[in-house]
Amino acid sequence: MRHIPGLLTRLIAVLMLTLLAGCSFPVRTVVTPTLTSAPLVNETSIPGTPEPPLAISICPVESECPPVVLLDDMIGRVVEAGTHDVSIPYDKPVRVRVMWWTASPTIMVDNLAHIHWIFEIDGQDYFSPDMIVQYLAPYDEENKTQADSVSITATLDGWKVNQPHTIRVGYYFDESVNDGWQDNPAGFSQIYIYNVTPVLPETLTSAP
């Protein structure tokens, strides 16, 4: 019985050493990542084309379109390519149209490979391929001959009194072309610029 206290003492000492050694082990911390609902920002995004200041409608089959006055007819004379000032009724839609003729469909196919179309409002491009219409139309009224033609056309509405807009419409060629009657050099163009002022009907005027 004399040896039991000594053995017990040694057991207690070993237990205490083990506990002390365990207290010196490093503590491992688990870090939970913080979640956020903030959206990512794409800093390279390109702003889209702004909404047009006027309502633009396209009717590819003119015979099926609502009756609309041509902007050229509002000027009241034969209109050549260039810049024109014109007043129109603010509450009426108007149609713009610029045409190109060729002597045959085959020539038209060749010409169309080099034509570039223009349709702008206040310097902003609003061109759409849907604006392009190709059909047979009278070219020489006296001889009643037909020519293959293509046009860029659109109807504009939503005018407001005394809020002018500049409409630029037409085409140019990036290479010389022959329309079946004559040669046309590279850069040849037919571009019409209309400075349009919507007004009350009684104040209608037009100027070259």
What does this structure look like?
The chain is 16% helix and 38% strand. The chain contains three helices and 13 strands, in the order αββαββαβββββββββ. It has helices spanning 4-23, 71-75, 105-112; strands spanning 55-57, 69-70, 82-89, 94-102, 115-121, 124-125, 132-140, 145-157, 165-173, 177-178, 183-184, 189-199, 206-207. The chain has a six-stranded mixed beta sheet with strand order 6-5-9-12-3-13. It is globular and about 45 Å long. It starts with a helix and ends with a strand.
Global outline: globular
Poorly predicted runs are 1-9, 11-46
The strands making up the biggest β-sheet line up spatially as 6-5-9-12-3-13
Report helical residue fraction. 10-25%
> Taking all residues together, what is the mean pLDDT?
78
Order of helices and strands: HEEHEEHEEEEEEEEE
Distance between the termini: 132 Å
SS field, number of helical segments: 3
Alpha-beta content class: alpha+beta
Radius of gyration: 39 Å
Largest sheet: 6 strands, mixed
Q: How many beta strands in the DSSP annotation?
A: 13
Question: Which range does the strand content fall in?
Answer: 35-45%
Q: In summary, what is this structure?
A:
The protein is an alpha+beta fold and 208 residues long. It contains three helices and 13 strands. The chain has helices spanning 4-23, 71-75, 105-112, and strands at residues 55-57, 69-70, 82-89, 94-102, 115-121, 124-125, 132-140, 145-157, 165-173, 177-178, 183-184, 189-199, 206-207.
